[in-house]
Amino acid sequence: MSLAIYPGSFDPPTLGHLDVVERASRLFDHLVVAVGVNSSKSSMLTCDARVRALEQCVAPWPNVSVDSFSGLLIDYALAREAGIIVRGLRATSDFDYEFQMAMVNRRLSEQVDTVFLMTRWEYSYLSSSIVREVAQLGGNYSEMVPPPVRKPIADALRARSGY
Ligand code: ADP
User: Which CATH number fits domain 3-161: 3.30.1060.10, 3.40.50.620, 3.40.50.1000, 2.40.360.10?
Assistant: First the structure.
């Protein structure tokens, strides 16, 4: 059985992420969307909020589940006995970082390979940081994220502004 991990910050999950999930779910027997917890990075959504929103987003696909992890991705992948890491690629600007991470992860373990899925054209501009920026500046982000992600963002913005 092929088990793949799709790791990321997903802060917040976007339609671009979900498109990668949908396509990866057809390539592998089981896909785990894994929210990486990085305590040194400040985030808009809590890890719990990201996991809960993602769980609702992936509900249509029976072979997709959601989890969170901290520490080294490769340790997490080995612990789950996953042979594949899925990452998305947008413009060439993603490439340097993704290439470096894939090389390091291969160096750390030969048992796990990284597979890249190219973004869908209509989502090539979309990133979590763009959604955060639009949301924080009061813009309409609702067409950039899956419906279950809209309320957690609104809640986070409200909590931040104090009302
Ligand atoms: P990270 O902080 O690990 O880069 P992200 O949540 O920003 O986490 O992204 C997770 C993965 O999804 C990365 O491989 C990223 O390149 C990919 N990704 C993000 N947005 C898109 C998109 N619009 N289309 C395809 N892949 C994407």
Answer: 3.40.50.620
Q: Of all atoms in ligand 1, which is nearest to the CA of residue 124?
A: 23
* Ligand 1 interacting residues, C-beta cut-off 6 A: 8-10, 14, 16-17, 20, 87-88, 90, 94, 119, 123, 126-128
Q: How confident is the prediction along the chain (163 residues), in pLDDT tens digits per residue? A: 999 999 999 999 999 999 999 999 999 999 999 999 987 778 999 999 999 999 999 999 999 999 999 999 999 999 999 999 999 999 888 899 999 999 999 999 999 999 999 999 999 999 999 999 999 999 999 999 999 999 999 999 999 876 5
Annotated catalytic residues are 17, 41, 90, 128
Q: Tokens for 127?
A: 């990133």
Q: Where along the chain do its domains lie?
A: 3-161
d(CA 66, CA 25) in angstroms, rounded, equals: 13
